[in-house]
Design goal:
This protein is α/β, with parallel strands linked by helices. The protein contains eight helices and seven strands; from the N terminus they run βαβαβαβαβαβαααβ.
């Protein structure tokens, strides 16, 4: 378990959930880990969990702060995992267009901002790993903004892989992942969703942060992979009558 020995991994959005677990697994694989997040207190606890003292508290959607973070790095890094930037779910009748515009900006412009900021800071052969949802494949009420974002980011990823080569750029498209954020979004419907997934998914269990983190670390270590989107949804997209994960 020393696949990332001597390498530096930056996790943007690393104070909880998938980002935090990616930091743990990268550290276990021998990497020096830098965690970033908005909340300094959450970040401090995450750093203790991961076993790193390298953190930076800032909002990744503050473009000036993001540029400063990369510019101020003391040296080059090898991999950047990005989990920052959330989805926006609302029916057309209830949509707040200010929030919708913000969500689209975060989801579509954040990879571009990070790509530009990281250029020259990530070693050749290193990686940028972005995340999106799999909701674009199954239309439904309240999913239109998430679908726009999820449909566009694969194209952004493919283009960045060409522009930033030999740095590799890949995208993880996740279905339901059992994280604290999922609990916040689903509230008292969370357990019913878990039960349905356990009974229905081909893997007969719920996808967790460790599953996604393991894929992220694999994308960092497998140097043949770039420009592609990798689904992780427990097989939800292959269920009869399903157009994809959510």
């Amino acid at each position: 378990m020393n696949e990332l020995g001597g390498q530096t991994v930056v996790v943007i959005g690393g104070s909880s959930g998938i980002g935090l677990e990616t930091g743990r697994q990268a550290r276990a694989a021998g990497a020096d880990v830098i965690l970033t997040g908005r909340n300094p207190d959450h970040l401090k606890q995450a750093a203790a969990d991961v076993g790193t003292d390298r953190t930076a508290a800032f909002d990744a959607t503050d473009w000036a702060a993001l540029q400063r973070f990369f510019a101020d790095l003391p040296g080059p890094v090898d991999h950047v995992m990005v989990t920052a930037g959330g989805q926006y779910y609302a029916s057309l009748a209830e949509m707040d267009f200010t929030q919708a515009r913000q969500a689209i900006d975060e989801h579509l412009l954040l990879p571009l901002q990070i790509g530009r900021a990281a250029a020259g800071r990530v070693r050749p052969g290193g990686t940028l790993v972005f995340m999106t949802g799999a909701g674009a494949r199954r239309p439904g009420p309240g999913l239109v903004i998430a679908a726009i974002a999820a449909a566009a980011v694969p194209a952004i990823t493919a283009n960045l892989a060409l522009e930033l080569a030999p740095v590799r750029v890949n995208l993880i498209a996740a279905g339901f992942v059992d994280t604290p954020l999922s609990g916040t979004l689903l509230g008292d419907q969370l357990q019913a969703r878990r039960d349905w997934l356990r009974a229905t998914l081909p893997i007969r269990r719920v996808v967790g942060p460790a599953d996604v983190a393991a894929l992220a670390v694999h994308l960092m270590t497998n140097t043949a992979l770039t420009g592609a989107t990798y689904d992780i949804d427990g097989g939800e997209q292959v269920l009869p009558g399903s157009g994809g994960g959510s």
